[in-house]
Write the structure tokens for this entry.
Amino acid sequence: GESVGLHLPTLSVQEGDNSIINCAYSNSASDYFIWYKQESGKGPQFIIDIRSNMDKRQGQRVTVLLNKTVKHLSLQIAATQPGDSAVYFCAEYYGGGADGLTFGKGTHLIIQP
Amino acid sequence: KAGVTQTPRYLIKTRGQQVTLSCSPISGHRSVSWYQQTPGQGLQFLFEYFSETQRNKGNFPGRFSGRQFSNSRSEMNVSTLELGDSALYLCASSLAALNTEAFFGQGTRLTVV
């Protein structure tokens, strides 16, 4: 079936640098793409979403880019802080389906001091 | 405003037993979705309820069931537990039916022995 995946299981960055977490998706009919952050012992936390008719959306210190040509989604975190350390999941939502949110496997972002 | 509350936080059951997990959504939210999270399969959609009706169901056996009450609180039940049912069960609430901005609880960690 259709699935959403992430390129790297682990990403290590220096504190203060920008982080880029990537995700490849396969369902070109998905309506929304969403990024979640999950800290140890907690449930996923919504970060930002983007509609399929958009290319870019910015939030506070985060930017999501959507490239529908190559079915690629990325999350950019500016000036990475220790509190950004978590597992990041991309998810897709297809309104015409019955699968709820389809999540990728996750990328563990590690912040080096 | 209180977040999504899941009870219990931890549960240990033996094979063959059944279990009921509870989720209280954010006040005013009418949609509740359930997800199973395991290291091997990641986050997988179980089902979604809106206004006491199941809208969508994921690819799980009939042993997994749920319901939603008139106050939007939801329960999920797993009968005839198997070792493979050990997982973190997450509940997410949103204002509308499968709004992409879903708020997750901390989950119930179920261990089947």
Q: What stands out?
A: The two ends of chain B are 37 Å apart (CA to CA). Chain B touches chain A at residues 4, 33, 35, 42-45, 47-48, 56-59, 90, 92, 98, 100-107 (CB under 8 Å).
